[in-house]
C-alpha cells in the first residue's frame, strides 16, 4: 500500500480484550488512530503503528471521531476508515472500499460504505435515500453502487478532501443521528454518499430487539433513547435536513415513547429518559447529558 493513502480511526469505550486484539491485528496492515472515550481507561500495549488519543472522559462519538479524523488529516492521509470497537472488517473489505475510489475517480464521492448485517435483527439493513416526499428503502443487493442519503459511520471510508468542505461531525448531537446529519449535509453540498451492497459487514445496532404486537424493534439503553429522541429536535433546526425526513421523525416520537416504555426492562427508566430527551430537545439543551 502506498504511504499516506489510508488510515483507520477506531473509537474505544470500555473496550474488552477482543476489541484490543482486533486493533492489534488490523495494525499489521494499517496505521491506526485509537480514540479512547473511556472515563478511566486502561493501558494498552500497542505497536508504533497505533496512535492512542486518551480522553479520560466520554466526550461522545461525534467529538471522538472528529479528533481521530483530525489526527489522520494532520498526517497527510487521503482516506479515513471509521470503526466502532465492535467492528471487525476484513482486509479484503477495506481494500474493496479503497479500490472503489480508485476505480471511480470522482471528486464528489464523500464516503463509501458496505451494507451491514444487523445480527440482532437477523437481516441486512437497507440503504436509505430520502426524496422530497418519500423515504426510499433500497434493498442491499446486487453489484451496482447505491446513492444513499447517509450510511452508518462504522466501516465507512471517508474521502478527506470532501470532508474538508463538508466539515466535522456535529458534536452537539453527542451520539445518535451523527452519521445521518453528516450524510444529509454532504448531500446538500452536492457530495455523494455511496453504499456498496456486494460488501457485507457484521454489525449490531443496539441490544436484544423488543417485540411489540409481533414486530421487532431495535432496542437501546435508556440513555441512548434519551439522545435519540432529543436529537430529533436538533435535526429540526438544520436547514439541510429534508422536511419530509423531519416530519417522519416527529411523527415517530410518540410511538417510540409508547413502545420503549411498554416492552423494555426498566420501563419507567426508559420513559423518564425519553421524556427528558423530548424536553431538552424542545428547549435546545444539547451536548452531553449531565449526571
Entry keywords:
Spore Coat Polysaccharide Biosynthesis Protein SpsA, Chain A; 24% strand; alpha/beta; 9-stranded mixed β-sheet
Q: How would you summarize the topology of this molecule?
A:
Blueprint: E1 6-12, H1 17-26, E2 31-36, E3 50-54, H2 61-74, E4 79-84, H3 91-103, E5 109-118, E6 123-124, E7 127-130, E8 135-138, E9 146-148, E10 156-159, H4 160-166, H5 178-188, E11 192-203, E12 210-212, E13 215-217, H6 222-237, H7 243-251, H8 253-260, H9 267-283
Helix pairs in contact: 6-7, 6-9, 8-9
Note down, in words, how this protein is organized.
The structure is a single chain. The chain is of the alpha/beta class and 291 residues long. It has two domains: 6-203, Alpha-Beta Complex (Spore Coat Polysaccharide Biosynthesis Protein SpsA, Chain A); 210-283, no CATH class. It has helices spanning 17-26, 61-74, 91-103, 160-166, 178-188, 222-237, 243-251, 253-260, 267-283, and strands at residues 6-12, 31-36, 50-54, 79-84, 109-118, 123-124, 127-130, 135-138, 146-148, 156-159, 192-203, 210-212, 215-217. The strands form three sheets. Strands 1, 2, 3, 4, 5, 6, 9, 10 and 11 form a nine-stranded mixed sheet that branches. Helix 6 runs antiparallel to helix 7, helix 6 packs parallel to helix 9 and helix 8 (253-260) runs antiparallel to helix 9 (267-283). The radius of gyration is 19 Å and the shape is globular.
Amino acid at each position: 500500500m502506498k504511504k499516506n493513502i489510508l488510515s483507520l480511526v477506531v473509537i474505544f469505550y470500555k473496550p474488552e480484550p477482543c476489541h484490543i486484539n482486533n486493533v492489534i491485528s488490523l495494525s499489521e496492515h494499517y496505521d491506526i488512530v485509537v480514540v479512547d472515550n473511556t472515563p478511566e481507561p486502561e493501558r494498552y500495549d500497542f505497536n508504533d503503528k497505533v496512535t492512542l488519543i486518551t480522553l479520560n472522559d466520554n466526550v461522545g462519538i461525534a467529538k471522538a471521531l472528529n479528533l481521530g479524523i483530525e489526527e489522520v488529516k494532520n498526517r497527510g492521509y487521503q482516506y479515513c476508515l471509521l470503526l466502532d470497537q465492535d467492528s471487525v472488517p476484513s482486509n479484503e473489505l477495506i481494500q474493496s472500499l479503497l479500490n472503489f475510489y480508485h476505480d471511480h475517480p470522482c471528486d464528489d464521492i464523500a464516503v463509501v460504505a458496505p451494507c451491514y448485517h444487523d445480527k440482532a435483527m437477523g437481516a441486512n439493513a437497507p440503504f436509505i435515500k430520502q426524496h422530497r416526499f418519500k423515504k426510499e428503502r433500497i434493498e442491499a443487493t446486487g453489484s451496482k453502487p447505491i446513492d444513499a442519503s447517509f450510511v452508518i459511520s462504522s466501516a465507512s471510508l471517508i474521502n478527506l478532501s470532501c470532508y474538508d468542505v463538508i466539515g466535522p461531525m456535529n458534536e452537539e448531537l453527542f451520539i445518535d443521528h451523527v452519521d445521518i446529519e453528516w450524510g444529509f449535509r454532504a448531500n446538500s453540498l452536492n457530495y455523494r454518499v455511496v453504499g456498496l451492497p456486494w460488501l457485507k459487514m457484521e454489525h449490531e445496532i443496539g441490544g436484544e430487539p423488543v417485540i411489540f404486537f409481533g414486530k421487532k424493534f431495535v432496542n437501546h439503553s435508556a440513555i441512548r433513547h434519551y439522545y435519540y429522541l432529543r436529537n430529533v429536535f436538533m435535526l429540526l433546526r438544520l436547514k439541510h435536513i429534508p422536511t419530509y425526513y423531519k416530519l417522519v421523525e416527529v411523527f415517530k416520537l410518540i410511538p417510540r415513547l409508547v413502545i420503549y416504555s411498554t416492552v423494555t426492562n426498566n420501563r419507567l427508566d426508559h420513559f423518564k429518559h425519553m421524556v427528558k430527551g423530548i424536553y431538552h430537545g424542545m428547549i435546545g439543551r444539547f451536548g452531553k447529558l449531565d449526571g
